[in-house]
User: What shape does this take?
Amino acid sequence: MSILRMMIVLTAILLVSAPFTPQAAAAREKKADKPAYKFKTFTEVRHTPVKDQYHTGTCWCFATISFLEAEALRLGRGEVDLSEMFVVRHTYPKKALNFVQMHGNAVHQQGGQAHDVIDQMREFGIVPEEAYSGMNIGQKRHNHGEMVAVLQGLVDAVLKRRGTRLTPRWLEAYEAVLDTYLGKVPAEFSWQGKNTTAKAFLADALALDLDDYVELTSYDHHPFYRKCRLEIPDNWTFNSDYFNLPIDELVSVAERALANGYSVVWDGDVSEREFSTRETGYALVPEKDWEDKTTAEREMKPAAPLKEKEISQEMRTRTLRDFSTTDDHLMHIVGLASDQTGARFYRVKNSGGTDRKYDGYLYMSLPYFRLKTTALMVNRNSLSAELRAKLGI
Assistant: This one.
């Protein structure tokens, strides 16, 4: 073989093998690691920073308090950090009373609904975080695991008593446990150099009209445009004031609110495999179900936005009934966004701290919203005049 021919052969071998060099492999890996989704937020409501509920099941309170903080900003009241634990502290005794009076046939867990916050504020007012942090356990973050176990043990023990009558002391003991773990609620506190109370703070500093806030849902086993009871465990008060709308109209409610400077409390299912606040930062409903995917398909990371399911009204009710849609989590929707294809996403503020993808925010696709939303809370003034007239509000 001539030297010239040998050089040609060697060059050809090098060209063929070049894609398999470590450098080429690294380049391919870098290309494969490019995110499948690129989000652009084009509408965002003013809101307060992300908080961390940590080891508590109080998302219902964090999401709704965040919503009310945004309402205060929208109304020109300024930025205020409200105390979630003030509301939690006043909610637990009511859950306990309900649980005991129902002989244990009721919910006594950490979960709740957006209206629970409104209900407690209506009765007790609200205080800023600096007046009541609920951190009385010597830790830097909320951790209710032990407290919840003690509270559950107490009410279980009350129901197992051997006597025929309950004493009035069990609820006092329950309240004492809450005070031990969360701290005693202050009768007065200082705000901007003056002493005030929780009710006065709500009336004067926040000046929010609690009657403005309504909850909505969308299930076809209830009549549309009428109030209904949402049959989920966290609706432990059996509240029957959810306005039931067709899903297309529920989507329009959220879109209209956000486009006009209002935010939205979102309640729904976050147990899906395509919901991730840490790794991907988005929530999707892919066209192909996880159970129908091969092992290779499950392990494959998408290189581009996935095609998602078309969500019908019937599908919403069916998945609620068969428990593939469950009521897991509440969050605060603060903006409208889109991916690089123009598909609609919602920018959602979570309450799991900032040590997550997108610094604690999540991008929820429109199909996910349509299928996995169990309820919303909005300011009734964000609804169209036509819908308000139809609902009688």
